[in-house]
Each structure stands twice: as C-alpha cells, then as structure tokens.
Amino acid sequence: MRSHPFLATVLALAAAAAHGADERARIAAERAQAQKLYDTRYRECQSQFAVTACVDKARAERRATLEQLSQQQAVLDDAERKQRAAQRAQQIHEKMSQGNVPAAQRPSPELQVKAPRASRKSSGAEPPPTMSATSAKRPSIVKNSSDARSIARAIRTSR
Predict the structure, then answer these.
(1) Is 139 helix (H, G, I), strand (E, B) or coil?
(2) What is the pLDDT of residues 16-61, one digit of tens each?
(3) How far apart are CA 46 and CA 51, in angstroms?
(4) Which helix (H) or strand (E) holds 138?
C-alpha cells in the first residue's frame, strides 16, 4: 500500500481545525463569562460606599482574565497559521513532484483565447506621438556638447 502524505496532512489539518473550533468556542465562552462576572461585580460595587476602588479591582480582574484569553487566542492563531503554511508547502511539493511526470501523462493546461484588439483606425484614437514630434514641441537649450562646454566656461569665468 502506497503512503499518501497529502492525504495524511489533510486529515491532520481537519482534526486540528475541529480542535481549533472547540478551543475558539471555549475562549469565547470564557470571555462572555468574564464580562458577565465584571457586570455583576460592577453592580455590587455601586451599592458600596467606596465605589471607585471596588470598580478598579473588578476591572483589573477582568483585564487579567481577558489578557490570558487573548494569549491563548494568539497561540491558537499561530498554530493555525503554521498548519496553513505546512499545507501550502505540501501542495507546492506535490505540484513540484507532478512536474517530474512525463508530459504525456501530465494534464494539459487549458488554453486561454484572448479577444483581438480593436484596430486604431476603427477606434478613432490617434497614434501616440513619436519622440521627434514631442521633442519638436520642447525648446532646446543646448544643441550639442560644444555648446554645453562654452556655457560652462562662461559660467566659470563670470564667478
């Protein structure tokens, strides 16, 4: 029996995705629970004399819980990114190994036929100006290198 590494990778990724979905659901539930606990403590704090200290403590507890959950979420996201990268590397490897198959056995790529371009005469557009046409419109300051040298000498002597 021949081993299929791509199939094994896909199955491993599917299992990890299911686990990842469970973890995400757990994290979301814990976030909701942390918010609910904070809301309850906030209401309790409102009935006390020293409201600010009590609310600050409740906020600190919520912040610590949410920070821990965010770190867990980041670890989960990183693992999923690595799995997607491994899957992409596997696909590239498979594609490269498919390149070693003789041309007769390889599936031929689909041909793409492009529509012909509309001719310039039929489109009514003028052809782009040539270099000589554009340079004729610009005034020329220096015609050749001898003119440039004489201008440079004149500038140096005038200083």
Answers:
(1) coil
(2) 666 788 999 999 999 999 999 999 999 999 998 888 999 999 999 9
(3) 6
(4) none
Nearest to 87 by CA among 5, 7, 9, 20: 9
Last residue of a domain, one of 77, 98, 119: 98
Contact in structure between 24 and 76 (CB atoms under 8 Å): yes
Residue 22 CA, chain-centre distance (Å), reads 26
Q: Which amino acid is at 56?
A: D
Distance CA 94, CA 100 (A): 10
Positive or negative torsion for Cα 49, 52, 57, 59: positive
Q: Say yes or no: 38 and 86 in one domain.
A: yes
| DSSP letter assigned to residue 114 | P
Residues 90 and 153 in one domain: no
What angle separates helix 5-46 from helix 51-98, to the nearest 10 degrees? 170
